[in-house]
Amino acid sequence: xxxxxxxxxxxxxxxxxxxxxxxxxxxxxxxxxxxxxxxxxxxxxxxxxxxxxxxxxxxxxxxxxxxxxxxxxxxxxxxxxxxxxxxxxxxxxxxxxxxxxxxxxxxxxxxxxxxxxxxxxxxxxxxxxxxxxxxxxxxxxxxxxxxxxxxxxxxxxxxxxxxxxxxxxxxxxxxxxxxxxxxxxxxxxxxxxxxxxxxxxxxxxxxxxxxxxxxxxxxxxxxxxxxxxxxxxxxxxxxxxxxxxxxxxxxxxxxxxxxxxxxxxxxxxxxxxxxxxxxxxxxxxxxxxxxxxxxxxxxxxxxxxxxxxxxxxxxxxxxxxxxxxxxxxxxxxxxxxxxxxxxxxxxxxxxxxxxxxxxxxxxxxxxxxxxxxxxxxxxxxxxxxxxxxxxxxxxxxxxxxxxxxxxxxxxxxxxxxxxxxxxxxxxxxxxxxxxxxxxxxxxxxxxxxxxxxxxxxxxxxxxxxxxxxxxxxxxxxxxxxxxxxxxxxxxxxxxxxxxxxxxxxxxxxxxxxxxxxxxxxxxxxxxxxxx
Length: 531
Prior knowledge:
By secondary structure, the chain is α/β, with parallel strands linked by helices. 40% of the residues lie in helices and 16% in strands.
């Protein structure tokens, strides 16, 4: 006979059966039934200090593992607090599932605890979909729908809310786990013939790689050699081709002069990238040649021009078909891009970054050189990260995570905690600015509680530096860009974390190396004076 339990407990058992090992969240009187089954199901719960932190932890966990990040929150303010992480996960294609409680009815009753006019609709504005389960069967069905969609279409945040009385009511166990569905799109043979022919005749092709191009990219160097192509990445695509490869120009799309490079191409292959405003910081890419676009999102493909080729498929399916065709090519194509000119252009862009944000580039170089191999980095909206993303070469994909689209402050610390939870025994690091640290500094207590060896690089330029620079460019007298900061090292120590304020780059490197071997997090406090 099927065992019955309160639905809140059954949901945790169902998630465990579907492969969920960690849940981030905060319990409250409205969602306590969801906590009844967590330990019994064998799931680890990470107690955040704020629902925003829980959401960013789930995001960081998902980015580190590729598995869904799951969060439990309460009705009303709990859901409102996690909506910023939901928006970030939606923007950056992160599989996050938020499950909340909700009031049993709101139309006829006013003044209830945590009451909102329309909680479901509010969440719907920042995620892929938000639905209310009005029966146990509906709750189970919605959870399976979310998990299947994470595997089969563009992964984005989703929200399910369950009425409190339903969470408390006994329910049968969830149905058996359905077969794993792996999303695939039919590769049109005729379209792939056109792709092959276009690559055969192209003399100066460019391969543009976004975050969606990671899957199956291990042999991408072969694609570059066989086609004579040069690689350019978005910020999210860094590391898909080793940034030190002479055929890789790096994440330079936002540089205004990148247009001059793109104008020289006679074919562009854009894989897994929206080429959005936050990739380009201009209205168009600036090319004049045909483009091949490969993406799982039809909304991206809808922007293709008449002369372009559009393929709706996963990157790995495109690579597999193309690699099979390339195997029959007799030899590699000559690399028609002028290597000396490419190297000179890269050096010029690096100099521009250093001039725009003086002093940061040499600190980035020193920090990069002291990290263990395979370090996963979570960065925040801070000038240090803006500069680093343009000059810091990555040798593997999916190891630098940034709140690119939604662009929220306070992301890095809790997201890195989620990543460190997922990557036990592997190096994880956060980079955050002084102002952004204020947003989620309370989550430092979680890292201490869990004993995570997490270096948190805190860049303190004593202001909202990027906003101040923007105001000056707009001829606005800078105001409201300076806030009183605490003694960050003493603050970290009050949480029980380690803290250091190195006075030289050599000291910084020693501090960071030691932080990866510590029994808790280390706040590494840096200012421009370190130079």
